[in-house]
Amino acid sequence: MKYCKHNIKLLPSVPEPKYVVFTDFDETYLAHQNREDYKNDLKELEEYLLNETYQKQIFFGWVTGSSLTSVFDKINKCGLTLLPHFIASSLGTELIYFNQNQYAKKDKIWENNLMKTGFSENLVNNLVSFLKLDNIHLTPQPQIADCPFLKNYYYHQQNDLIDNQAILKIKELVKKAGIQVNISQANPLSGDPNNCYDVDFIPSGTGKKHIVNFILQQTNVSYQNSIAFGESGNDIEMLQTVKHGYLVGNATSEARKLHFQIAENEYAKGILSVLKTLIK
Questions:
Q1: Enclosing H/E stretch for 246
Q2: Cβ density class 166-186: b for 16+ within 10 Å, e for less
């Protein structure tokens, strides 16, 4: 798939980064509410990244549950003007770099690792059918054609007892199948229905946590200089894998119960204030 380069800037290359910054995209980096103050905060963050990543040796990327197609749709819709050094999309099952030399180039090492896992659509379909026999019904989310290693479903909440039992059963079954599942509260601000959990099936050894470890290894950046930002339950593992993991100020109530380091400000303003504090 080709992605248009017109009217969007690329960050300068950082051959030997000192810091790696990971941030969730939807409702962390990008606010879906069309407010002028949020737009201005994002412009200020983009300006900081454009001016400071080379000087301060920052390798910057988005780690998102959205597909790359969806990310670019939002870039165009919301008028973003800057791409990061990398995008780990589809819940970290795709890893793609953006610079003058390798625009939209996939990381072949990461892709080859995923192809060896045995993950398949048929395997996920069988798991979903088996769960249905236990009266656990999962509703398919719209699937994107360029996401072969991510299958998304919704679980509609009933009550705490039934929901906890269902989540436990899903996790047990997935573990036996040799793949992974990410379950977190769905966020209506990102377009999800109310009172649902996102249930995301992915290959073993992938996801946001594993992207962090892989990127740190590939860049040879110290754990002490790893920074991450998120706002929901599916960001918690990523935040707890880095040295400096922050929820932005608009984080969900679910996330706040699981992680206690929270930026004072929301969205891009929260990211920028933390970066200015940590990176001198």
A1: strand 244-247
A2: bbeebeebbeebebbbbbbbb
Distance CA 125, CA 2 (A): 30
Indicate which CATH number applies to the domain containing 166. 3.30.70.1410
Question: Is the pLDDT score of 134 beyond 90?
Answer: yes
> Quick one: tokens of 86?
């990398």
Token pair 């891009």 is at which residue? 268
Domain region containing 250 = 9-113+207-278
Question: Under a CB-based contact definition with an 8 Å cutoff, are residues 242 and 223 in contact?
Answer: yes
Q: Measure the CA–CA gap between 57 and 21, rounded to whole angstroms.
A: 11
DSSP 72-107: HHHHHHHT--EE-SEEEETTTTEEEE-SSSSTTEE-
* Contact by Cβ (8 Å): 207, 180: yes
Q: Mean of the pLDDT values across residues 81-89? A: 96
Smallest Cα–Cα separation from 30: which of 92, 94, 82?
Answer: 82
Alpha-carbon distance of 64 to 159, in angstroms, equals 29
The residue from 24, 26, 107, 200 that is catalytic is 24
Contact 4, 43 (CB under 8 A): no
Domain boundary among 185, 203, 221: 203
Q: Is pLDDT at 4 greater than 70 in this prediction?
A: no
Specify if 55 maps to a domain.
yes
Domain boundary among 179, 203, 227: 203
Per the structure, how many domains does the chain have? 2
Would you mind telling me the total number of residues written for the chain in this entry? Answer: 280
Per-residue pLDDT at 144: 62
List residues bridging with 181 in a β-sheet: 201
Quick check: is 160 catalytic? no
